[in-house]
Amino acid sequence: MILYKNMPKIYIIFFIFIFTHQAHALMIIKHNLSASENENSLSYEYAILKLILDKSKDKYGEYQLVKSIKMSQTRAFHELSKVDSEVNIIASMTSIEREKKSSPIRFCLFKGLLGVRIPIVLKSEKERIEKIKTYSDLKKLSAGQVFDWPDTHILDANNMNVIKATIYTGLFPMLVLKRFDIFPLGALEVYQIEKEHEAKYNLSVIEKWAIAYPTGYYFFVNKKNKILEERLNYGFINAIKDGSFDEVFNRYNNNFLQIAKLENRKIFKLKNPILPKTTVFKDKNIWHPLIMKEFSEF
């Protein structure tokens, strides 16, 4: 107190300004999410990121989102581990390895529903593939996936025949050439993707069954970026408390859930050996009821 009494007012005002500026300095957040409304499942991630950043402005101040270059999941996690990186937040399915390298924000963006995989198939093959009844039938089918997706490792671990592509867009011509039978995709993304590619490749979506495994889909940040990690957790908690997370989730995804009719499908449950033990499916604010019902024992 004595120090402040003897200090000229102009210096006190200066120090207050500097402290306030530092406390709420503009936070630059470099991401590789799509902001395009034409890529609905991806623009949903962008909408959630903006939501939780907005819900944290009272404590952490303003922010600026900067779009990074497009990159594979492998490169994105590699970049994320750097101190001065092209990206400081990514969204992805979790795994033991990914959580060792990066810090997950443990609020699942898709409420576990990206672990429910509905296959895209050729229209000419749909009738045959719809008829499968058993796990033995399922394992006779070959599945196409990108080589570095966690889903690829999960299907491999369940002794499925997985045909791997280097890039996502390469899977569609490979399906047309019958390199594999099914292209499993998340329940909340499959119909948008089918709509975008159906005419060119003559595709259809399986209606009677789905594959499911327990997983989370999180935002990830660098382990040393504690401020961003704290901010995202704080914003997510606020968005869940005031109902805005559910509002955005429902606005983007309810239509797909109605089309998918998951409750009427036969579900082939698979194990997920790369699921971190810290993943618990018991919070109704984070997980969809179907996920809690099927995987509450995990």
What is this structure's SSE topology?
Elements: H1 2-5, H2 9-23, E1 27-31, H3 40-54, H4 57-60, E2 63-67, H5 73-80, E3 90-93, H6 96-101, E4 102-105, E5 116-122, H7 126-130, H8 135-139, E6 142-146, H9 150-157, E7 161-165, H10 171-176, E8 183-186, H11 190-201, E9 203-205, E10 209-212, E11 217-222, H12 226-241, H13 244-260, E12 266-269, H14 289-295
Parallel strand pairs: 1-2, 6-7, 10-12
Antiparallel strand pairs: 3-11, 4-11, 5-8, 5-9, 5-10
Protein name: Transporter substrate-binding domain-containing protein
Organism: Silvanigrella paludirubra
Task: Summarize this structure as a short list of keywords or feature phrases.
D-Maltodextrin-Binding Protein, domain 2; 298 residues; alpha/beta; single chain
Can you characterise this structure?
This is Transporter substrate-binding domain-containing protein. The protein has helices spanning 2-5, 9-23, 40-54, 57-60, 73-80, 96-101, 126-130, 135-139, 150-157, 171-176, 190-201, 226-241, 244-260, 289-295, and strands spanning 27-31, 63-67, 90-93, 102-105, 116-122, 142-146, 161-165, 183-186, 203-205, 209-212, 217-222, 266-269. It is α/β, with parallel strands linked by helices and 298 residues long. The protein has a domain at 9-113 and 215-258: D-Maltodextrin-Binding Protein, domain 2. Strands 5, 8, 9, 10 and 12 form a five-stranded mixed β-sheet that branches. Strands 3-11-4 form a three-stranded antiparallel β-sheet, with helices on both faces. The protein starts with a helix and ends with a helix.
